[in-house]
Amino acid sequence: MFEKLKRGIRMAAFALPIILGGLGGAATAEADGLKIAMVLPGPISDNDWNSVGYNGLKAAGKTLGVEVAYSENVSDADSERVLRDYASRGYGLIFAHSFSYGDATLNVAKDFPNIIFMAGTAKELASNVGTYSNPDYQGAYLAGMLGAGASKTKTIGWVGGMPAPNMLANLHAYEAGAKAMAPNAKVLHTFIGSWFDPPRAKEAAIAQVEQGADVLSAQGVGVIDAAIAKNVYALGAMTDQNHLGPKVVLTSVTWDLGPLVAAAGKAVQDKTWKSQNWSFGIPEGSVNLADFHGLDAGVPPEVLKAVQAKFQAIKSGAFTPPLDTSNAN
């Protein structure tokens, strides 16, 4: 009986939103009036999309000195309930950190017109619903250049979750960068049909290696495991993922969401927030290439020089990577 009670308590605790205090603690948050929440589809420990969301939320809370809270591993079916709960408890800015939360966000926003919602890569907006994109396609162009330049077979791979606009933009930019570096490069791609299925991602990546790919773009958890198993290079995503495969993760296209969350929060505070697409990329310092951790020694110097030159061109505005969200063939 006692064991059942303990299990019930643990389950209840896991289901509750987790609150993180910003600088200045609860008194600052109360004085300011703004509280920010984020709803995430996967675990904040994934070193990927969810980690970026969580880290950005936490950083913004410190920057603004406000209370922040989050809920992780929220299914699409449960997202409306969780979003509605945050809105009913007075969170003035709520981030729905998933492309698949779009409809739920719009439904809740209708009932809470004074709450501001930010939906990740949303297809539709409303007066109190904005969107934010991950312009990592800018970094994906560089990753494609690097992958094709480092590849001995001139066949490189890309494994992602589902064909959402941001993923399609990433894939097409990766292909464009690869062709710019090596016109004869071949790019294999697979959508596994899930945002988080490491075994399926690993299986898809291994299949690409068996077709000749010797560099893999890891757009999902599990791809790096395949690179380790097959001893090929991987290009990480979202965070510096070298620690997941120190001998194979050449570099990673990183995304710092903190500045965007903080900017949106400040705009809400100042009453200057607008329903639009918020996008912070390479020019804003939010998208970068991570350290090579010494693995750049295996890449031809002229390739590294070309990638760095292109990075600077994107940062200065002299070059704009193609933004293509059309369906993949």
As a whole number of angstroms, the C-alpha radius of gyration is 20 Å
Task: Give the DSSP E fraction (strand runs of 2 or more residues).
Answer: 15-25%
Domain count: 2
Give the strand order of the largest sheet, numbering strands 1, 2, ... along the chain: 1-3-2-4-5-6-12
> What is the succession of H and E elements?
HEHEHEHEHEEHEHEHEHEEHEEH
Decide which structural class fits the backbone: alpha/beta
The outline comes out as globular
Our count of helices gives 11
Low-confidence stretches: 1-16, 21-32
Topology, number of strands: 13
CATH arch. level architecture of the largest domain: 3-Layer(aba) Sandwich
* CATH evolutionary superfamily of the largest domain: Response regulator
According to CATH, what is the topology of the largest domain? Rossmann fold
CATH level-1 class of the largest domain: Alpha Beta
What is the percent of helical residues? 40-55%
What is the overall pLDDT average? 91
How many angstroms does the end-to-end distance come to? 57 Å
Largest sheet: 7 strands, mixed
